[in-house]
Amino acid sequence: MTETPWLDDEEQRSWRAFGLATRLLLDRLERDLQEAAGMPPTYYELLVLLSEAPGRTMRMSELAHWTHSKPSRITHAIGKLEQAGWVRREPLASDRRGWLAVLTDEGLAALRAAAPRHVESVRAHLIDVLSPEQVSQLGDISEKLLEHLLSGSTARPSA
Amino acid sequence: MTETPWLDDEEQRSWRAFGLATRLLLDRLERDLQEAAGMPPTYYELLVLLSEAPGRTMRMSELAHWTHSKPSRITHAIGKLEQAGWVRREPLASDRRGWLAVLTDEGLAALRAAAPRHVESVRAHLIDVLSPEQVSQLGDISEKLLEHLLSGSTARPSA
DNA sequence: CCCAGATGTTTCAGTACGCAACTATTCAGC
DNA sequence: GCTGAATAGTTGCGTACTGAAACATCTGGG
Question: How many CB pairs under 8 A join A and B?
């Protein structure tokens, strides 16, 4: 059991600013997206995934995998999206346990209608606020964090 | 109505990495904190605020203000924290509409017990993953975002 | 004074999510 | 083939949050 040093001033500054900025930014983007698309960002992400998939179709478990989320969330979310008419479910012939989520024409239309406003929002509150150099730095930083989080994802600090 | 240009490759890369990294990081920190302190980050933040306030006391509306959250969340949260014995409520003499939330000794103890593990977690998944230079860059970036979000906070992209 | 509007807080209804328990299907080993 | 373990997905319950409406109290203009 080793002693972990407290954060110094600079680390403290970065951590506090990052924590707050992140929360406020995500809140803002969520609001904008809700207004533009009538759905939360997580649902939007599902539609994006489906729109980019061959046949506009993905298996539930694939959706769970690519969104890094639990199966139950996919069930709930696809249920809602189905109710909205944006997604349709089809049984999977090759594996009778499985289901396909298929993006409907209405879903694609909703996505295309919302996308410009979404981009606008990301620009207005993130990209255009920063210098091109900072955008690039943020990319590097995020990728480094991702690498850590995705690889040693099972490791917890002390335990 | 002006055309907003789509994101170029570099912007796209940063935005996608940032979005995912942020979500995964926050999830991880939330889990760690839940394990260390038995409470969500937002409750932890309330205890921190109270611990730093004179008399370990703040008004409900102040808590809402400093956490950038809605009043109803404070009511719920303080209710839970009160149940846990970490916070006590006192009526406010000078304004009979108001209530004070007071951090109890147990609350302070819980906070002090959880803090080292929390710091450890922030180090392990954020600070120590980055170079000191990147930590500093992230601080600058976050502060720039904060400045934007806090000032023009009422402005939405197109509307 | 007193009443209208502002402010502080709670309550209620509704959303998104995780966890744990469950059903149904597939697969591996014998 | 058959049985037991792994996998796919759903369901139900509990938690944290929001927005709107309700309610109490305060404040300022007549």
Answer: 177
